[in-house]
Specification:
The protein is of the alpha+beta class. It has four domains: 104 residues, no CATH class; 137 residues, Beta Barrel (OB fold (Dihydrolipoamide Acetyltransferase, E2P)); 161 residues, OB fold (Dihydrolipoamide Acetyltransferase, E2P) (Beta Barrel), CATH 2.40.50; 85 residues, OB fold (Dihydrolipoamide Acetyltransferase, E2P) (Beta Barrel), CATH 2.40.50.140. It contains 14 helices and 24 strands. The protein has a five-stranded mixed barrel. It is flat and about 90 Å long. It starts with a helix and ends with a helix.
Length: 543
């Protein structure tokens, strides 16, 4: 049974399955859920002893589908044969006469093997390396391909090595939440895989697969594992980056790489799950005043000031108001001849010792040309630029700490597309690089929004005065209706199509349900909006 549980893919369904609590072991009082599959008379005898344990099924019909594993040649990994299904009819005993005939014709049984049962070796002709889907990995060494969806910067371990963690997906593990983490160890940063973008392809030969906290995890060791990073260039050719002097790359490797690249474009554009260790989606710069602790951002870096320590980055994502930007940052861009976006808030990221790692990982060249994702930025206040005068009240500062990480983002990634939607552009071609920002006029960059007017009924406008948010939040009288004016800071869900939905059981009538976060000065309030009159032609067209 342990062998079956570890290697076979098994699915049991039908009528006659009973879910019961079962004692986990003789030395513990813990009980665990299990599914019991039994013959009819066994179920009846169980009910005779405990009548209220479960409802007896009127008819029994069980299907057991299984995939038998085979061991790949010269590998610890498995390949699964096509699924087979057996039913209760197949499980019934044959008639006595036929059973005797079958036993007479059957070859003598082999002596039971109570040791480790070997798997049949799969017959493989080519290629030399056998790459396993990520969902089928078992303990041992493996050769794998994966799409990079998350990574950390290399950090010095307690020993002599540097460690970097990479999360990879493929068609069998399609979401960031289900990605396989691979811990990579090398004595120097020069040997570490030079991953630049989310969406890069990485190939591992002889990566060690093991279980950690009930999840499959990879371990790349400098003495055994070999890696190859692949990405598509602007001319369509494949860039290959490795620390090995020689490596293999056959036509089958190119086919697999291009297939993964095509799949990644679709997957990363739709996947809204969060990678392991990320509790919240990246925030907008306009939401920074409400952030605490550590946050993630997806932004454009407009300027890098590395003349003095610490290095300072000016970042922008199109959200917020340009009038709220620190004028010191605006003048710094103007002094360097960098186009100042006519809309959107400017903020600053301060980096110290981590800048050396970012530079050694070859991120600097692409930093000013692509969207960037910062992870675990510390939110702080007031670290003024030397010699600058800061207005009273301070300003939010983002600090890049040892626990922070950085990676470039492709234009088709969902987080990037959401920020581009703030500008009304389907992709980030309008802000592909700073050279284009310089050549675009403010009227070309700014999208004229459609003006929407909310009509307030006279009975409310005349009889209910406008109440500031500060008074609403401190009001002891709840629940109560208020009339207020406030700026909408965010809306959830972000996808406008999900705001309006058809009523249950009626595709012709719609309801709307969403949450707004509004602000007035330093006060903030969350509002749930719900209505049954979602009959707007505009909304129906968007549905």
């Amino acid at each position: 049974m342990q062998f079956l549980k570890r290697h076979y893919k098994l699915r049991v369904k039908g009528r006659g399955l009973v879910a019961l609590e079962w004692e986990a072991g003789a030395e513990t009082e813990e009980r665990m859920q299990c599914v019991v599959v039994a013959e009819r008379n066994v179920l009846k005898k169980t009910l005779d002893r405990k009548p209220r344990l479960f409802n007896f099924p009127h008819s029994l019909h069980i299907e057991v589908a299984y995939e038998e594993p085979q061991r790949l040649p010269d590998s610890d990994q498995l390949r699964y044969l096509p699924s087979k299904t057996i039913t209760t009819r197949d499980l019934h005993s044959a008639t006595p006469a036929r059973q005797t005939l079958i036993q007479a014709q059957a070859p003598p049984r082999k002596k039971p093997n109570h040791g480790k049962r070997p798997l049949e070796v799969a017959r493989m002709t080519s290629p030399a390396y056998r790459y396993s889907p990520l969902s089928e990995l078992v303990d041992g060494f493996a050769d794998i391909y994966g799409v990079v969806v998350n990574m950390t910067l290399p950090k010095k371990t307690s020993g002599r090595d540097f460690c970097m963690t990479v999360s990879v997906t493929d068609e069998s593990c399609p979401t960031r939440a289900a990605a396989i983490q691979v811990n990579i160890f090398y004595p120097t940063i020069e040997k570490i895989p030079k991953i630049k973008f989310v969406g890069d392809i990485i190939r591992f030969h002889k990566v060690k697969i093991q279980q950690y906290q009930d999840r499959i995890q990879g371990l790349s060791l400098s003495r055994a594992t070999r890696h190859l990073v692949l990405r598509e260039k602007a001319n369509g050719s494949l860039e290959q980056v490795t620390n090995s002097d020689t490596w293999t790359f056959e036509s089958s490797d190119e086919l697999r790489t291009r297939k993964l690249l095509k799949w990644a474009r679709k997957s990363l554009a739709e996947d809204d799950t969060l990678p392991q260790g990320c509790s919240l989606a990246p925030k907008l710069l306009s939401e920074l005043k409400f952030a605490e602790g550590f946050i993630d951002l997806v932004v454009r870096v407009l300027n890098v000031d590395d003349c003095d320590e610490p290095v300072r980055l000016t970042v922008w994502d199109g959200s917020g108001s340009a009038e709220e930007s620190d004028q010191v940052l605006v003048r710094a861009l103007q002094d360097k001849g960098v186009a100042v976006p006519p809309y959107g808030l400017l903020k600053e990221v301060i980096m110290s010792s981590c800048w050396l790692v970012v530079r050694e990982m070859c991120f600097v060249d692409g930093m000013l040309k692509n969207w960037c994702r910062f992870r675990n930025l510390a939110v702080g206040v007031d670290e003024p630029i030397p010699g600058a005068v800061i207005a009273p009240g301070g300003r939010e500062i983002l600090r890049f700490r040892e626990v922070s990480s950085f990676v470039l983002m492709p234009d088709f990634a969902l987080d990037v597309r959401r920020r581009c939607s703030l500008m009304g552009t389907p992709n980030s071609s309008i802000t592909a690089n700073n050279d284009q920002l310089r050549t675009c006029s403010p009227t070309e960059n700014r999208v004229s929004p459609e003006q929407v007017v909310t009509v307030i009924p006279d009975r409310i406008r005349k009889n209910i005065p406008v109440t500031p948010l500060r008074e609403i939040l401190s009001s002891p009288q709840t629940p109560r209706k208020f009339h207020c004016w406030a700026r909408v800071r965010s809306i959830w869900p972000n996808d406008i199509e999900k705001i309006c939905k058809p009523k249950s059981g009626n595709s012709d009538e719609f309801i709307y349900s969403f949450a707004l976060t509004v602000e007035e000065g330093s006060e903030c309030l969350s509002i749930i909006v719900y209505g049954k009159d979602a009959v707007s032609q505009h909304l129906q067209q968007q549905m």
